[in-house]
Amino acid sequence: MTHQLKALTIALASIAIAGTIIPAYAGSFERALRKQDPRTRAVWVCERLGLQQMKKDSSLRKPDRLFLDVPVNSASLASNTLTGNGQIRDERGWTDLSFSCTVSADRLKARAMTYTLGKLTPWEVRSPKP
């Protein structure tokens, strides 16, 4: 078997494996969502959409974690809109934010999200030298 044929075989096998794993993960997320109350479902799907959007925000540096219910149970769900405060983590620290997120009627999909970034709390807060 030539080197190119081996590489092609490995690439196709990887695609086939990924094609079965990703839908399985997506299905497990939806199954977990269905076990939650409507408000929790809204928080989870909005966190997922929000992190995708914030990864594209040039004012953040490699964001990797988003919490939309800070302090816990403070987000408000009215009709199909979740609003409240949260925090996003990036390589500089945690940044406060306020948000509004529209979800589907069954709360299984986030439709749109807007947010406003607030104060950054850096990882290291240095005290002034004496």
Task: Summarize this entry quickly.
This protein is α+β, with helices and mostly antiparallel strands and about 130 residues long. Helices cover about 40% and strands about 30% of the residues. It is globular, with a radius of gyration of 20 Å.
Your description of this structure?
The protein is of the alpha+beta class and 130 residues long. It has 2 domains: 1-35; 38-130, Roll (Nuclear Transport Factor 2, Chain: A), CATH 3.10.450. Helices cover 38% and strands 31% of the residues. It has helices at 3-34, 38-54, and strands at 65-67, 76-78, 81-90, 93-103, 110-122. Strands 1, 2, 3, 4 and 5 form a 5-stranded antiparallel β-sheet that branches. Strand 4 (93-103) and strand 5 form a beta hairpin. The longest helix is centred in the first third of the chain and has 32 residues, at 3-34. It is globular, with a radius of gyration of 20 Å. The termini are far apart. The model is unreliable at 11-24 (pLDDT under 50).
